[in-house]
Amino acid sequence: MDTEEIFRIKALRKVYRSGTTDLVLFDNLSFRVCEGEMLAIVGQSGAGKSTLLHILGALDSATAGDVFFTGMRLNALSEQDAAEFRNRQIGYVWQFHYLLPEFTALENVAMPLYLRGEDRRKADAVASRWLEEVGLADRGQHRSGELSGGEQQRISLARALITAPRVLLADEPTGDLDNRTAESVFGLISRLHVEHRLTSIIVTHNLSFARRCSRILSLEGGMMREVLPESLLPSQG
User: Fold this and answer.
1) Which tens digit of pLDDT belongs to each residue from 111-133?
2) What angle do CA 156, 52, 91 make, to 5 degrees?
3) CA dihedral sign of residues 215, 184, 207, 99
4) Is the per-residue pLDDT at 187 higher than 50?
5) pLDDT grade, residue 97 (50/70/90)?
6) Parallel, antiparallel, or unpaired: how do β-strands 5-18 and 21-34 relate?
7) Architecture of the domain made up of 5-228
8) Domain spans, the chain
9) CB 105 within 8 A of CB 131
């Protein structure tokens, strides 16, 4: 039985206007992502990897081309429908954790459920379970400034997954962490990917981590190509 197609990207083009000239970030990108894949996207800084991730998550729009999510054309969604798609289907983790400093770790994790209008006690109970999932059950009442960088990123991962999304989009999730902490956080992402049957798309400069994903795409010179894990040399950052 064929694996279900989650994303289908067709002839994607992104152009930025810079003064009187056009900057073509990428052009004619076409690829697909199947359910359950852990896909790494690699490439030099400025290649457009983060922009591509934003387009897949309906946070940005392409200049031309189409993005389909399980057959639904994302670039045809209204702003309200796009917001609903993001809230229901996508979990995001960024290089910087973006935790709200005035709230506790538990409240930060529960925030997406608060914003849905769910009962606060129920939301807090789910957040507590997610704190256990990421190994921070004893840190729930601490504010972000009292947590280490690795702990903050674990909190942001729990917040991303509390809504039970189908897809995890992670943009350099270990980029701000030292090597040992980065290894721990990537290991956690890998475990949660399997246990929660996620489809994960991870932008990373860390080629060692990319090699451990099920598939690797390289964005270079505005074009996408698939690369074999063994073709990438291990990196430290």
Assistant:
1) 999 988 889 999 999 999 999 99
2) 25
3) positive
4) yes
5) confident
6) antiparallel
7) 3-Layer(aba) Sandwich (3.40)
8) 5-228
9) yes
CB 202 within 8 A of CB 173: yes
% of the chain residues with pLDDT over 70: 95
Strand partners, 65: none
CB atoms under 10 Å from CB of 166, counted, come to: 16
Joined tokens for residue 216: 């690797």
pLDDT-derived band of residue 232, with 50, 70 and 90 as boundaries? Answer: low
* CA count, 13 A, side-chain hemisphere, 96: 2
d(CA 206, CA 53): 17
Interval 206-210 mean pLDDT:
90
Largest CA distance in the chain: 55
CB 122 within 8 A of CB 199: no
CB atoms inside a 10 Å sphere around CB 179: 12
The answer to whether the Cα torsion of 132, 137, 143, 149 is positive or negative is: negative
Phi then psi for 132, rounded to 5 degrees? -65, -40
This prediction's pTM: 0.90
| Residue 203: closest CA among 81, 76, 53 | 53
DSSP assignment of 88-132, as one string? HHEEEE-SS----TTSBHHHHHHHHHHHTT--HHHHHHHHHHHHH
Residue linked to tokens 């690795």:
150
Please tell me the distance from the alpha carbon of residue 2 to that of residue 38, in angstroms, as a whole number.
Answer: 17
